[in-house]
Amino acid sequence: MNLRRLLNPAFLIALCVMSASAAGFKAAIDHYRFYLKKLPIYAEGGRLLRSIPAETDHWIRAGSDFVEQAETLEVLGTENYVTRYYAQKGVSNGKPKIVQLHVAYYTNMIDTVPHVPERCFTGAGMNLVDGPENIALTLDTSSWLPSPDQRPPASPARLYTTRLSNDFSSFGRGRRVNLPLDLTPDHPITLRISKYAGPNGISNFAGYFFVGNGSWVSSAEGVRVLAFNLTDDYAYYLKVQVGSTDAASAAELGELASTLLSDLLGEIMTCVPDWTKVQRGEWPPDNPKRKQTKAAGQP
Fold first, then answer.
1. Beta strand pairing status for 127-136 and 98-107?
2. What residue ranges do the domains of the chain occupy?
C-alpha cells in the first residue's frame, strides 16, 4: 500500500472508527465485567457422577456401570460421566421396567455442540421415528423447601432445596441441597423425548434435559446460552438423559424418569458446583469474586 493511499481521508476515517470501536468494546468489557473466556469448575471435593447411588427407594442398579472405550470417550468429550441401568424395585406383578441413566459433565468447553440422542442415536444407525416431544416430569416435591440461599429474596426466579435419602445417599443422609434455579413444584422440568428404532426393530425412547450454571433447560441450543452468560467467570453444563426400550410411549418414559429422578435429582446436584456459592465467591477457592469482595471491603 503506497503513502498516498495511507493518507487518503476515507482510509484515515475508517481506521479511526475501527480503533475507537475496538477501544470502546474493551472498555465495555471491563466496565460491565464481561468474561469472554470461561474458567473450568468442578463440584466441591471433586465429587464425580459415578458417586450417584446405585440404589434408591424405588430403583436398583441392574448390572455394572457401562465403561466407554477410549475412542468413544474422545467423542463424548468428558471422563466425568455415568451410564447405568436401573430396575424398578417392589414390582409384584409382571417384569420390572429397566431404564438407562446417562449423565455427563462438561466445563470450559461451552462452545461445543452438546451430545444429544437426535445426533448420537441417528449417527449410530438408529432411525428417528417420532419426536422430539417435551414431557413435563411429575417429580415428588414433598421434601422440597424454599432455599435460604435465594438471592435476592424477592427474585422472581425461585430456588428450592431437596432432602437426600436417609437410607441410600452417598453424600450426606438427610442433607439438603439446592436444586436448579427456577425448578419449583409449579414449574417442572421438561424432558425432551424422541422415539428411535434400531436395526433389530426394537423401539427405544430417550429424553434429556440440561443443568448449566445453576439453572436448567431442555434444549441443546438453550444450554449454550444458559451456560455462556457473559458476566459469569465459570461455565459448566450437565446432560441428564433417561432412556428405555421397556417404555411403550413417550408419556410412559416420562413417568419412569419422574420416579427415578425424584430419587436421584438431589444426588445429581451434589456432583455440580453449588452456584449460589460460586456467585458469592465462596467456591472455588480462587474465585475472582472473592478478591472483588475483599477489595470492596466486604466480609
1. unpaired
2. 44-292
Q: Which three cell numbers stand for residue 85?
A: 441401568
pTM of the model: 0.83
The tens place of each residue's pLDDT in the chain, 299 residues long, gives 454 544 555 544 554 444 443 344 334 334 334 344 789 999 999 999 999 999 999 999 999 999 988 877 777 788 999 999 999 999 888 899 999 999 999 997 655 567 788 877 877 788 999 989 999 999 999 999 999 998 776 677 799 999 999 999 989 888 999 999 999 999 999 999 999 998 888 899 999 999 999 999 998 888 888 877 777 899 999 999 999 999 999 999 999 999 999 999 999 999 999 999 999 999 999 999 876 655 555 55
Q: Which of 210, 254, 245, 201 is CA-nearest to residue 116? A: 210
Pairing relationship of beta strands 160-163 and 176-178 according to DSSP bridges: antiparallel
Residue 191 phi, psi dihedral angles, 5° rounding: -95, 130
